[in-house]
Specification:
alpha/beta; seven-stranded mixed beta sheet; about 325 residues; globular; five-stranded antiparallel beta sheet; Rossmann fold
Length: about 325
């Protein structure tokens, strides 16, 4: 275990998330699907004494997502920009960053979305199941919840990264007995988005035990080794993926729904900061402490993790 760095001068730090105008931070919540993560953030925003207000819900899928329902229920404006139609109108069949045309179209879509958001004076955004990789974080910071413990490293690199059920599968195959959700401060997307899980880790959820559903680890490793090299369009749909999906739902309820709202509140309160050397700080009792991340329990209590603490190992 390491120790906390001495409290730096506040003038040496850049405080993240505190509101530019008014007494509460203006938060835009981005969603593409059912919005269960968004719903938890909205619910917390209605609690007395919180430091943020959800001023707009944003979606790329107005026809299929639950955004309009949540907007009406919570009385929050909705901004919708259908990404499928946007690509189709420009002659592109696939919503992808794999081609130069796809990346240019994504930048154009992002620029139009940012124009639509200008009236809301957004202080920061929250990606709550938002599918498109886009660089709105060049204009305001954005938080994203990820289904894996991003502090777990091998050879100095984060292991439990990726989309879909990939982080869950990696945790299972590495022999982990539990899962955690991470909330990160997103980095601007580069190229095809390979750096999407590289931002500061602002929070970790409580541990959620993995349910192997009666299947041995050896069996799941055999399933993995028999997979084709490329992931099919609709997934592998094998035993490993089904178990990973089951555990991802458990993690969402006991991980995402716990850590994401609490990180949003602490971010809005200005409890996070960075320095010019790329270190993350968390404010505890008025003192800034250099941290690797902050652990949250189900009641929102925080445990700062020292900056030189790491989960490392071999899969």
């Amino acid at each position: 275990m390491g120790h906390f760095a001495n409290n730096p001068e506040s003038s040496d730090l850049t405080v993240l998330g505190s509101p530019r105008n008014g007494t509460k931070a203006s938060v835009a919540v981005f969603m593409s699907g059912s919005g269960s993560n968004a719903e938890r953030v909205l619910e917390l925003s209605r609690e007395p004494g919180v430091s943020f207000a959800v001023t707009v819900l944003v979606t790329d899928r107005p026809k299929t997502s639950n955004t309009a329902v949540l907007a009406e229920r919570f009385g929050v404006p909705m901004v919708a920009l259908d990404i499928r139609e946007f690509y189709r109108e420009r002659g592109l069949k696939r919503i992808s960053l794999a081609s130069e045309a796809g990346r240019r179209t994504r930048e154009a879509w992002t620029a139009q979305l940012l124009e639509l958001l200008k009236p809301y004076a957004v202080d920061f955004g929250v990606f709550a199941g938002f599918i498109p990789l886009c660089n709105v974080m060049r204009v305001f910071p954005c938080l994203n919840v990820h289904p894996g413990d991003l502090t777990y490293q091998e050879d100095g690199r984060r292991v439990l990264v990726g989309l879909h059920t990939i982080p869950i599968e990696k945790a299972i195959l590495c022999g982990h007995s539990s899962l955690r959700s991470s909330v990160i401060l997103t980095e601007p997307v580069e190229g095809q988005g390979d750096n999407m899980d590289s931002g500061f880790i602002l929070g970790l959820s409580p541990q959620v035990p993995i349910d192997f559903m009666g299947t041995s680890l050896e069996r799941l490793r055999e399933v993995y080794n028999r997979r084709p090299q490329s992931r099919p369009k609709n997934g592998f749909d094998d035993e490993l993926e089904k178990i990973a999906r089951h555990n991802q739902e458990k993690l969402k309820e006991r991980g995402d729904w716990v850590v994401l709202p609490y990180v949003v509140e602490n971010f809005a309160r200005g409890r996070y900061a960075t320095d010019s050397q790329g270190n993350l700080y968390f404010r505890v009792d008025g003192q800034w402490q250099a941290v690797k991340t902050v652990e949250f329990d189900e009641y929102g209590n925080t445990t700062p993790v020292p900056v030189d603490f790491s989960h490392s190992g071999d899969c």
